[in-house]
Design goal:
Radius of gyration: 24 Å
Order of helices and strands: HHHHHHHHHHHHHHHHHHHHHHEEH
Strand content: under 5%
Strand order of the largest sheet: 1-2
Structural class: mainly alpha
Helix content: 55-70%
Number of strands: 2
Number of helices: 23
Largest sheet: 2 strands, antiparallel
Distance between the termini: 14 Å
Mean pLDDT: 90
Number of domains: 2
Low-confidence stretches: 458-481
């Protein structure tokens, strides 16, 4: 009796404050706290990070069956946002704006861009204004790749001529001036590079798609590195806006589910830290990928195809992870539009230096050395290869089930498929976590929306239950009361 009273009290409190079922609120909170553990286990903790992602996968499998679809007459959320949720959403937006302002003003004051991804975008845009191809052979844009490939350069006959303080001074000088002489000093390539040396010169260019470098080039003439952070912050708030549209659409008419889920995204440390406070470029691909998802559930296949093309032209991964949606509408036109638009964006760069764009944008994810942010760093190569093979098969099965209609939950499919990719990856930066966390939140909304017999939907269309279908649930509710 006492336990029942406490449960009812918790339920009443959750509905009064958040406007939703406590089980839904708990699922959101548990997912956010669990992924938050990745901040405590980062460099050197690849095994722990693999366990955390594995635990999330188990949670998503459980979410697919609990709560059961169409299992109750009770709704999981209110049709309006409570005053508390509205206040929390406003506070969270203001907090994120404050983070953006703080990071931007710091960059304005110091002239520094936090995180190497924004730094490479700034170098690439400046090189482009000089008439140099940021993807070309022999260009030096990615200093992180330069530092990680010392062994490969030595094996290719491009041994280091600088080290220690001299190397750091050369980096600073090159970053400030992009001086060609300093670049030659750093790369120290043979007069006529061939074989391994020629291939090695191909991998120090810009690693992300033309969309980002072209957008950055629009502000590069002002000579203010902080504009990179402001662009990143603006794209992140655009990402928030698109995901609010997605969440409110899939939660309708239970709007409070979307409100609580949006609060989780606004407070997601993996998003705010990497995309607002720092300059991780994944936000661009996720923005266009989210637009593609919104177009998909709005049944706009051509807009979806265009958005996926822009996602791939921003960053090949995670951009390509949205490509299976092109087969959703059983028509070749979206796929043809995607190929045509993607080809049009990449064509000038392919004509300029085909090997450069191929190695830097498309092959680089496979050339990256495993590091200790991933469990694969500590595992035998055969075990890592086996897991990657299983992961590829799992991806095929997940998307085939969805595209054939055997799986009805799009957001659960997105969350699990992207999680499988991260589990099979040899590198796991925290900036990659939103590839999954965006869709985990949406999958929780999707599951609790489908819990209700009245509001359950299939194929993004509402389902109205018949009297016969509703009778068992009414009897169960009467028995429980």
């Amino acid at each position: 009796m006492e336990m029942g009273g406490k449960a009812r009290g918790l339920k009443d409190w959750s509905w009064r404050i958040l406007g939703c079922d406590p089980a839904f609120a708990f699922a959101l909170l548990a997912a956010q706290l669990w992924l938050g553990l990745l901040w405590f286990f980062y460099q050197g903790h690849g095994i722990a990070r693999g366990i955390i992602l594995g635990g999330l996968l188990l949670g998503l499998i459980a979410l697919r069956f609990r709560p059961p679809a169409a299992s109750t007459m009770e709704r999981a959320g209110a049709t309006t946002l409570t005053a508390v949720v509205r206040s929390l959403l406003i506070a969270a937006v203001l907090l994120d704006l404050g983070i953006m302002a703080d990071s931007g003003t710091y960059s304005l004051r110091t002239g520094k861009i936090p995180m190497d991804e924004g730094q490479t975008s700034w170098r690439a845009a400046r090189l482009l204004w000089r008439g140099e191809n940021p993807y070309g052979s022999g260009v030096l844009v990615d200093l992180g790749a330069y530092q990680s490939r010392a062994r490969q350069r030595e094996a290719a006959g491009m041994g280091a001529t600088l080290s220690g303080a001299k190397l750091r001074a050369a980096f600073a000088r090159y970053d400030a001036t992009l001086d060609a002489g300093t670049r030659r000093e750093l790369l120290s390539a043979p007069a006529k590079p061939a074989g391994a040396a020629a291939r090695e010169l191909l991998v120090y260019g810009y690693k992300y798609g033309p969309v980002i470098v072209l957008v950055t080039a629009l502000v590069a003439p002002f000579g203010v590195p902080a504009t990179v952070l402001f662009l990143n912050g603006l794209s992140c708030f655009a990402l928030y806006g698109v995901n609010w549209r997605i969440l409110s659409r899939i939660a309708t008419p239970q709007l409070s589910l979307a409100g609580a889920a949006m609060l989780a995204l606004l407070l997601d440390r993996h998003i705010t830290r990497n995309y607002i406070d720092r300059s991780a470029t994944d936000v661009w691909a996720l923005l266009f990928g989210s637009l593609a998802v919104l177009a998909c559930i709005s049944r706009k296949p051509l807009a979806m195809a265009a958005a996926i093309a822009l996602a791939v032209a921003s960053k090949s991964l995670p951009g390509l992870l949205f490509a299976p949606l092109l087969l959703k509408f059983r028509s070749p036109i979206p796929a043809l539009l995607f190929v045509g638009l993607t080809g049009a964006i990449y064509l000038p760069w392919l004509l300029w230096d085909p090997q450069g764009i191929w190695y830097n944008v498309f092959l680089w994810p496979f050339l990256m050395a495993r590091d200790y942010t991933s469990w694969e760093f500590f595992a035998p190569p055969a075990a890592a290869l086996a897991v990657q093979g299983v992961g590829a098969c799992a991806l095929a099965v997940l998307w085939l089930r969805y595209l054939l209609g055997r799986e009805t939950r799009l957001f659960w499919t997105l969350a699990v498929s992207n999680l499988v990719v991260l589990l099979a990856a040899g590198v796991l930066r925290n900036g990659y976590v939103p590839w999954v966390s965006l869709w985990v939140v949406a999958a929780i909304v999707e599951a609790f929306r489908d819990r209700s017999l009245v509001f359950s939907r299939r194929a993004e269309a509402p389902v109205v239950a018949s009297e016969r279908e509703m009778q068992p649930a009414r009897m169960a509710a009467a028995h429980n009361s």
